[in-house]
Amino acid sequence: MPLILPIDLAALNLEDLVVTYLLALTRVSALLMATPVFRSTGVPSRIRLLLAVTVAALTVGTLPPGYVAPTFGFGLIPIAMWEMALGLAMGLCIQMVFAALTIAGECVAVGMGLGFATIVDPQNGASVPTMSQQFVLLGTMLFVAINGHLVALNMVHDSFTMLPPGSQGNVQGGATPLLEWAMAMYANALRLALPVIAAMLLTNLAFGVITRAAPQLNVFAVGFPLMMLIGMAAVMINIGTLLDATASLFGEAFEAASELFAGAKA
Fold first, then answer.
1. What does the domain layout of the chain look like in residue ranges?
2. Nearest Cα to Cα of residue 97 among 178, 197, 182
């Protein structure tokens, strides 16, 4: 059975086909560069390049009918920058979830007394508390388990239907959903860490009462290991709630990316 494509590739000349493919490759590469799972140091650069080339080649043939490629010339520079901005914006919507996990891990680590224990994050190449790395690893496994990587690739495929390469978009309309989603990052981080923070607060209040009742007790010798023990127990007990909240954040991130393209198209 022959493959039926919305756009007649044979009707395009070589120059238009090359321009269309390069613009599509720019958007796809920007998405892969900004999405945490794809840009991880554990993924070889050749694999990312091969994936970007393949996805761009598959999306070129699915452009809407009547698509007209931009003219080759210096005018392609701002168009390519616009395509890169669209890909980066989609990736940043997902990145905000992992940033919220990192901040939530920092809040939990400080409450447990593990703020000084840091480890290198392989995704960002920066030192983060061990609890932040644990939260990020859980978020990464959940992202793959719910097929978030496939949703991201399908999202960039749908974006070419809404805004084909070279289309003029509304910058302000596209930036508004992204900024609103970024401003909610700290609130989302607090939502993820709130159960453990509440347990740490109750523990500190209990230590305060014990100190008043028995001043001779060395709270610093007993409190530090006990805070770590209670903190670890609170994280293990609330692991299901953490995963559910993270999955909900991933869904909101994909919705924010969809609203981004809807606003840019308007």
1. 9-265
2. 182
CB count in 10 Å sphere of residue 126: 9
pLDDT tens profile 99-157 = 899 889 888 888 787 766 666 666 666 667 788 888 888 998 999 899 888 888 888 88
Whether the Cβ atoms of residue 41 and residue 123 lie closer than 8 Å to each other: yes
pLDDT along the chain (266 residues), means of 10: 47 72 88 83 81 85 70 79 87 90 87 70 66 86 89 84 76 77 88 88 83 72 78 87 91 87 69
Q: Are 226 and 140 in contact (CB under 8 A)?
A: no
Q: What are the phi and psi torsion angles at 72 (to 5°)?
A: -70, 135
Residue 109 CB contacts under 8 Å (≥ 6 apart), including other chains: 115, 117, 129, 130, 131, 132
Task: Decide: 72 and 15 in contact? Cβ < 8 Å.
Answer: yes
CB-count exposure of residue 207 (10 Å: 0-12, 13-18, 19+): middle
Q: Which amino acid is at 252?
A: E
What three-state secondary structure class fits 193? helix
> Is residue 119 helix, strand or coil?
strand
Backbone phi and psi for residue 127, each to the nearest 5 degrees, phi listed first: -85, 125
Determine which helix (DSSP H) or strand (DSSP E) holds 151, and give its type and residue range.
Answer: helix 148-162
